[in-house]
């Protein structure tokens, strides 16, 4: 979509709205993250806000409250098309009309059939609308929620840490610590932003991971971050045993097992629930897993499992983002970051576009997304 005709103040305001929207990562699910900036009739910033937590006021409401009477005749810059339905809050499109806003510019159209139509409501009330300003940036900020609506499954980020020659451990199996303390702290940020953290039975057996996020203290005006759901794929129900760290109650835990697995030791556990899934390809059916997580309103998953589990998700074309932490070290031998992936020839390679590359302490963090869109329908 071609960008709307805007001035530099509006572009700067939308950029600010995107930064505000990102503050909601980790606290708004299953709702989208949204930011809004209101300019008064002279183009000066009058109010701003972001959606802070599910069930709370939307971004537009916060911004209009701050703007007060200065919103009349002004412009609202919103990262997502204003909603048009009454849920736990009133329609934002109606709030903008009642505030007397003259123009609304939004970055991404709302694909949710329950909420779409906000722009049409605004136009019917005589409010000028424009769409697409900084749309690509807004898509990235809201990727988890948009994926869940468009594809009917959670957005999957595969995270791994490796040496420059792609090894995740040494030949003797030692792996602590390949990357730096700074990189590991950044992983906790990813966990805090995700609805769920997922590992397989191999990682559960080898590392006994805790998987909870070390959450930063919230800002005075921000809600407390929410611990992600810890998910372990344990087909035979033999990897997560009594005393495992994921059963400590620090965060909710879901153990996915095969329908015929003996999971009696987990069935009545006070801090874990069992999810029974059909078998597929020597493990569990990933489509059924993603369906079950989506039904639980999990909108984003951070995949932290080993090479085999990552390969299964790549083979299923269910990886929406890759975040690789590369340490300036060489091992020459040892496990690789990815196994199989269903790719046997260079023509089948999953090509990626790098969206970000930066130093994290001594390490390099590379973020990439598939170069061509994955199948739209799940």
Automatic annotation (TrEMBL):
Look up the coiled coil feature and give its residue ranges: none
**Organism superkingdom:** Bacteria
Known EC number: 3.5.4.26, 1.1.1.193
Q: Where along the chain is substrate bound?
A: 175, 191, 203, 211, 214, 304
Q: Which reaction does it catalyse?
A: 2,5-diamino-6-hydroxy-4-(5-phosphoribosylamino)-pyrimidine + H2O + H(+) = 5-amino-6-(5-phospho-D-ribosylamino)uracil + NH4(+); 5-amino-6-(5-phospho-D-ribitylamino)uracil + NADP(+) = 5-amino-6-(5-phospho-D-ribosylamino)uracil + NADPH + H(+)
The text of the family note is: In the C-terminal section; belongs to the HTP reductase family. In the N-terminal section; belongs to the cytidine and deoxycytidylate deaminase family.
- Any keyword Zinc? yes
Boundaries of every CMP/dCMP-type deaminase domain copy: 8-130
Role, per record: Converts 2,5-diamino-6-(ribosylamino)-4(3h)-pyrimidinone 5'-phosphate into 5-amino-6-(ribosylamino)-2,4(1h,3h)-pyrimidinedione 5'-phosphate.
Q: Which CDD domains match?
A: Riboflavin_deaminase-reductase (cd01284)
Please report the name of this protein according to its UniProt entry. Riboflavin biosynthesis protein RibD
Give the record's pathway. Answer: Cofactor biosynthesis; riboflavin biosynthesis; 5-amino-6-(D-ribitylamino)uracil from GTP: step 3/4; Cofactor biosynthesis; riboflavin biosynthesis; 5-amino-6-(D-ribitylamino)uracil from GTP: step 2/4
Matching PANTHER family, A to Z?
2,5-DIAMINO-6-RIBOSYLAMINO-4(3H)-PYRIMIDINONE 5'-PHOSPHATE REDUCTASE, DIHYDROFOLATE REDUCTASE FAMILY PROTEIN (AFU_ORTHOLOGUE AFUA_8G06820)
- Listed InterPro entries: APOBEC/CMP_deaminase_Zn-bd (IPR016192), CMP_dCMP_dom (IPR002125), Cytidine_deaminase-like (IPR016193), DHFR-like_dom_sf (IPR024072), Eubact_RibD (IPR004794), RibD_C (IPR011549), RibDG_C (IPR002734), Riboflavin_Biosynth_HTPR (IPR050765)
State how the cofactor is bound: Binds 1 zinc ion.
Instruction: Write out the catalytic residues in the record.
Output: 60
Annotated GO molecular function terms are: 5-amino-6-(5-phosphoribosylamino)uracil reductase activity; diaminohydroxyphosphoribosylaminopyrimidine deaminase activity; NADP binding; zinc ion binding
């Amino acid at each position: 979509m071609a960008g709307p005709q805007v001035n530099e103040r509006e572009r700067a305001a939308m950029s600010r709205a995107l930064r505000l929207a990102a503050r909601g990562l980790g606290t708004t699910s299953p709702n989208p993250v949204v930011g809004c900036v209101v300019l008064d009739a002279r183009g000066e910033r009058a109010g701003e806000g972001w959606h802070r937590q599910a069930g709370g006021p939307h971004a537009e409401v916060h911004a209009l409250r701050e703007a007060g009477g200065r919103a009349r005749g002004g412009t609202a810059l919103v990262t997502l098309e204003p909603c048009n339905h009454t849920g736990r809050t009133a329609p934002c499109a109606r709030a903008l009309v009642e505030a007397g806003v003259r123009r609304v510019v939004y970055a991404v159209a709302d694909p949710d059939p329950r909420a779409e139509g906000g722009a049409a409501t605004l136009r019917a009330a005589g409010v000028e609308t424009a769409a697409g300003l900084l749309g690509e940036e807004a898509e990235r900020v809201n990727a988890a929620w948009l994926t869940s609506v468009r594809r009917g499954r959670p957005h999957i980020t595969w995270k791994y840490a490796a040496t420059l020659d792609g090894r995740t451990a040494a030949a003797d199996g030692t792996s602590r610590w390949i990357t730096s303390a700074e990189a590991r702290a950044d992983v906790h940020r990813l966990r805090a932003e995700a609805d769920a953290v997922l590992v397989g039975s191999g990682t559960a057996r080898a590392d006994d991971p805790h998987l909870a996020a070390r959450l930063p203290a919230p800002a005075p005006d921000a809600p407390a971050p929410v611990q992600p759901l810890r998910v372990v794929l344990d087909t035979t129900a033999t990897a997560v045993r009594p005393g495992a760290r994921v059963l400590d109650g620090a965060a909710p835990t879901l153990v996915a097992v095969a329908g015929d697995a003996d999971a009696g030791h987990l069935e009545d556990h006070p801090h874990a629930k069992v999810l029974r899934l059909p078998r597929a390809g020597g493990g569990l059916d990933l489509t059924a897993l993603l369906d079950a997580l989506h039904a639980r309103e999990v909108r984003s998953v951070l995949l932290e499992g080993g090479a085999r589990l990552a390969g299964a998700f790549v083979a299923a074309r269910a990886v929406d983002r890759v975040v690789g932490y590369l340490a300036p070290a060489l091992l020459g031998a040892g496990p690789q970051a990815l196994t199989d992936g269903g790719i046997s020839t260079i023509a089948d390679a999953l090509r990626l576009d790098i969206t970000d590359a930066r130093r994290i302490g001594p390490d390099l963090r590379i973020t990439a997304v598939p170069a061509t869109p994955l199948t739209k329908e799940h």
